[in-house]
Amino acid sequence: MLKILIPTFMLFPTIWLVPGKWLWTATTAHSLVVASASLSWFKWCSETGWVAPNLYLALDPLSFPLAVLACWLVPLMIIASQNHVAHEPLTRQRTYISLLVSLQVFLILAFSAMDILTFYVMFEATLIPTLIIITRWGSQTERLSAGTYFMFYTLLGSLPLLVALLYLLNDTGTLSMHTLQYIQMTNPDTLGTMLWWVACLLAFLVKMPLYGVHLWLPKAHVEAPVAGSMVLAAVLLKLGGYGMMRMMVVLGPLTKEMAYPFIILALWGIIMTGSICLRQTDLKSLIAYSSVSHMGLVASGILIQTPWGFTGAIILMVAHGLASSALFCLANTSYERTHSRTMLLTRGLQMILPLMAAWWFLANLANLALPPLPNLMGELMIIVSVFNWSSWTILLTGLGTLITASYSLHLFLTTQRGPTPQHFISMDPSHTREHLLMALHLIPLLLLVLKPELMWGWCF
Amino acid sequence: MTMFRGLYMTARVVHGIHVSSRFIHKHTRFFTLGLRNISTGRPVQNYFFKDLENQFKAFREKTAEAMPSSDWTPFEINRSLPPERADIVIVGGGVMGWSIAYWLKQKEKIREGVRVLVVERDPTYSQASTVLSAGGIRQQFSLPENIVLSIASADFMRNINKHLSVLNEDPVDLQFNHSGYLFLASENVAQIMEENYKTQRYVGAKVALLSPTQLKEKFPWINTDGIVLASYGLENEGWFDPWTLLNAFRRKAISMGVYQCFGEVTGFKYTTNSMNTAEGNKLDFQRIKYANVQMPNSLEYQPVECAIVVNAAGAFSGKVAEMMGIGLGLKDTIAGVPLPVEPRKRFVYVVHCPDGPGLETPFLIDYSGVYFRREGLGGNYIAGMSPEEEEPDTSNLEVDHQFFQEKVWPRLAHRVPAFENLKVKSAWAGFYDYNTFDQNGIVGNHPLVNNMFFATGFSGHGLQHSPAVGRAIAELILDGGFQTLDLSAFSFQRIITQEPMLEKNIV
């Protein structure tokens, strides 16, 4: 653990002391080294059940895929931001990369936290760099409203969570995940316990986001710069899922009844947000709503609490992280060239940038859960486990899959096919950096097809 | 006595409740005494609740203001600033600019598909060519493209309420007088008029050729001296109110969600791509990223991030094009070819002649260059003439009355004897967005500045073509190419290759 954490901390001196013309190269290289080192976490020793355990931090098969994803994403974010941040003063560039790296630190600590309160503090701590990135580097006046929505929706959920955790601490005397697995819930029938159950999960449901409390997500994604969107879509949403899975351990038998409305809301949300995607005019907004749709499936998978449900949820989280982040990078390549996110004006790009069209195709196929990609694996497992819980849900999940396919294809056909507008006469050809970025997103996704056991969690 | 009757009346009213009369009689006595309010002040109890109500109301209003969906922000935002980002910025809020804005919104298939911003420098339109125009529309051009544009625009204007009516607002009344245009030809231009007639008929305009005798029969007030042939437009020709058309486009466009900003575009921020051609020449492709819009009477400016800029600035389009460096390159390169649009001042004189030609008057254009049309129903006419030798000074919009006395009136009086005694009521001057190259519009994008589209240079026939050109530009931007009318003949290419499309019928 320390052999990843200390190099991550040392990224800060790298950022601030490296001379200006080596800044991007040095930080990219350093963070790539850290990311490759984090792959050592895949070596799972099944005796203790935990990887790299110490008193306070440890990883288990639930958290290390997500922690590796968090480490992997930082070099990708730095590569993606290089172009649009390069025109700013040097100190501002350093601050930007520092914010990204601080996010990585908080995320690794969050995923490996052994104490739920540590996890909570790190969960809250990730809000601050993200808020700074959205409000300072976003491009429009609406970013202030986006930051407000983002901040207060999450805080609305996490204050009850704090109270619930302190109550649990008071009740059981410990919040360490090692011991909490053995806790019995004392009186599951009272209103107080039911409220406590909701309080435990509300923060994570808002973060996922669940359909009813999802309004912050499209705003935050659209207004954030590309690195902000990438980290939001890829990792921060997964914090919600991970938190839910950890909390399920203590929430005991109450979940069987209490989860009912949230599962239905999540499934309904898949269809609703999928339909909203079909009517979107803004490219990033469409990708943001598709994130909500996929996360609805993850939420229902977690709330079902079966091994297949959990496994499907983890796989879908990791796969969606890579695919969604890839789509945001592609939207950014188009945005940097035309300065418009409107889908009507960035059409017919296949004629001009055919290689980028190939990446668009792959990323869209990943988004619509094409076999054999892990997106399909996760979706299928969740759909099957939810079907096992109630046969009627197949209507919702089946329709959801259909709508997902249609808006992914709509996205691809609108941006790539069709007549090329007149004002695209001379555009920058695709930079190698952009190709590298897309490759680094999609190659892990393709490799995961070959060895999905890495992501499966404890259940296989 | 009256007091007793009043008491009795009140008692009878109260008796309407189903209680025994005797009982209520006694009871009402006390009641009526209590109901008769002797004090003039209001009771204190009412005040308390009313105040509470008012306080709640104020609290609700205050929280409603601070809700996320409302406009209130803790930062003072200057509301007259344009948005920070717009997809398409249209420079120039004349009839051409608003027509393009309307058609862009008309063609987006999803609500809020594109964000359009129209930037207009002068909200009073004091120098805009649109509103100072004589407002005529004719199909009698020599180029088939111009004729087709006029026919399409006339069709739009005849069905204007189908296009530009807004729910719950008054319908649009363009005051389209279908009186037709009458061109008079002398010996040496009669041949051209006959060829034009053939072209116009071929394309579908309804025009008739008249001999001098026919002319005299139809319009007895004309002096047919020197006239060999006349061409009279039978349908879709006449004049209309340019202000109404401009406001109709604007109202409809704003109702569809177009943003309007009163400011001046003072510069652009762009990126440059240097490339080498096959022969090894260097070409600089530019892409506009931001348009700097400066607020009136202020140093404040807003860089508007945009994907496309449409130059519809009319007479001042040349200056806007220069901001991108069009025309400022080396002499024999594409970058050195300027946008050949400059303002040319033209005068319009309003005259009153009681014995004038009357209501049957078409828009008459003489071969000497003088023209006039009827204005209203009170014997007023609008007259003018294109200056032949010397162009008037374009630094202001002052009217030259000498010009009327020396040049216009003699020719008018020669053509229409009744005009010998007329009185000049008023006059104004306006700019043509004059295309010095070939006096025809420039429509399409510039080869080097990728995302700047032109819709300018119409040299006096822009207003009548505005609906059709607006649609063409919207098709060019949103569909990738012209769909209904092919205006590729009007592209900037002809200026670079120096192949003029000369229109022989310029007034």
Automatic annotation (TrEMBL), chain A:
Catalysed reactions listed for this entry: a ubiquinone + NADH + 5 H(+)(in) = a ubiquinol + NAD(+) + 4 H(+)(out)
Location of this chain's protein in the cell: Mitochondrion membrane
Superkingdom of source: Eukaryota
One Gene Ontology term of the molecular function aspect: NADH dehydrogenase (ubiquinone) activity
Keywords: Electron transport, Membrane, Mitochondrion, NAD, Respiratory chain, Translocase, Transmembrane, Transmembrane helix, Transport, Ubiquinone
Domain NADH:ubiquinone oxidoreductase chain 4 N-terminal: 1-110
One Gene Ontology biological process: ATP synthesis coupled electron transport
Sequence ranges assigned to domain NADH:quinone oxidoreductase/Mrp antiporter transmembrane in this UniProt record: 113-404
Biological role stated in the UniProt entry: Core subunit of the mitochondrial membrane respiratory chain NADH dehydrogenase (Complex I) which catalyzes electron transfer from NADH through the respiratory chain, using ubiquinone as an electron acceptor. Essential for the catalytic activity and assembly of complex I.
Family: Belongs to the complex I subunit 4 family.
Protein name, per record: NADH-ubiquinone oxidoreductase chain 4
Record organism: Esox lucius
UniProtKB/TrEMBL annotation, chain B:
Annotated GO biological process: mitochondrial respiratory chain complex I assembly
Gene Ontology MF annotations: oxidoreductase activity
Record function comment: Required for the assembly of the mitochondrial membrane respiratory chain NADH dehydrogenase (Complex I). Involved in mid-late stages of complex I assembly.
Database matches in InterPro entries: FAD-dep_OxRdtase (IPR006076), FAD/NAD-bd_sf (IPR036188)
Transmembrane segments: none
Topology relative to the membrane: Single-pass membrane protein
Encoding gene per record: FOXRED1
Cofactor requirements of the protein: FAD
Domain FAD dependent oxidoreductase: from-to ranges: 87-476
PANTHER family (UniProt xref): FAD-DEPENDENT OXIDOREDUCTASE DOMAIN-CONTAINING PROTEIN 1 (PTHR13847:SF287), SARCOSINE DEHYDROGENASE-RELATED (PTHR13847)
Protein name: FAD-dependent oxidoreductase domain-containing protein 1
Any one GO CC term of the record: mitochondrial inner membrane
Alphabetical UniProt keywords: Electron transport, FAD, Flavoprotein, Membrane, Mitochondrion, Mitochondrion inner membrane, Oxidoreductase, Respiratory chain, Transmembrane, Transmembrane helix, Transport
Organism: Esox lucius
Source lineage: Eukaryota, Metazoa, Chordata, Craniata, Vertebrata
Subcellular compartments: Mitochondrion inner membrane
